[in-house]
User: What shape does this take?
Amino acid sequence: MALTMVLTGDNHLNYYNQKMGSRLRDRRTWIGRAWRQTIDYAIEKEVDLYLHLGDLFDQISPRNPPRARVVEAFRDLHEAGIETFVLAGNHEAPASMRDGASPHSVIDEAGFATVFENALNFDQKLIEIDGRSVSVAGMSYNRRLVPGMDPLEDLTIPAGADFNIAMLHYSVERVAPPKWEEPQISVNSLERNSQIDLFAMGHIHAHVSTKVGDSLVLYPGATERYDFGESGHETGFCCVTVDDDIEFEFIPTVSQPMSQLKLHTSSLSPENPTQDILKAVEQGSSEDGLFQLVLEGDVPFEEYIKIDFTRIGDEGRGRNFYFEYIDRIKPLIEGLKFIETEGLHPRKELSAMGQQAVESSSPEERKLWERAAQLALSFYDKHWER
Ligand SMILES: [Mn+2]
Assistant: This one.
């Protein structure tokens, strides 16, 4: 009989984004549904193991509703006879003892899963499935490691079974490089632990698979997109089958449409840039979707002030589930050179302040704040131009 397992991670339940305002609730529904697919799939296919690779929650202190749904889901797995293992990712691992345990220790206490809380060393569980011995070893994310450190340095991952699994939540040098400066596992550390047949990995939101020696390194990727940088990602999880060989399948999840459109000022007509932008917004919009418009390039100042950002915002919000624009346009003023420095940009500061006020306003007051921000900027522009 083959050994089968579901691998998932980076679901980011209870996702938080201040900008999303009243839309956050519905966004969370999509995120929760995509994750629930991993549970339903595992139960339907009667897999042997369910491996959760971290960042189940977006924050260390999730609210009670997602917590309750998680407990319920792990109970469902437990009742279906699926052996379940969980570790804590960087979003939910406690930074110190004072923060207490990760939010899923409750699943452990209920006896629905084995939670590998230890971030300094591997814990291991040996099980027997259809006459095959299986070792599952896991280690949570260590928030005290600094960039440049290798979490597997000097560590030998426990094994000793017919099939040996290591669960981790880190990036891997070259294989799944980090997006920012952070600790990463070296390829050498994986090679040194060739007793491991399957490295089940969380943290990197893209689905990645590769062989290091005879070991399979598998990132199922995220079940929903986390931000607009992931617009191009497929979302899903993996189902691994071990027989004589190890094979896996990528199972896509249903995720909310998301798109990012970069519009350069060179494609806008100087007479009516707003119209061109509105046309692009209309084309890229979808009722259910999250849409980010990024405006880039240089334009003469006279053209820049023709852009009706309020109208663009209204149009975008009306045509999408969620809309935001990022204004990276550099207005050019004759006789004045804009020099990008690290120093103070009074206009940028003012613009950012206005944006912040708009974003943190209630939906009823939003228009008012937008208008106020606009007026402040035009006032600034008028006086500064002299
Ligand atoms: Mn992570």
Observations:
- Residues 236 and 253 are 5 Å apart (CA to CA).
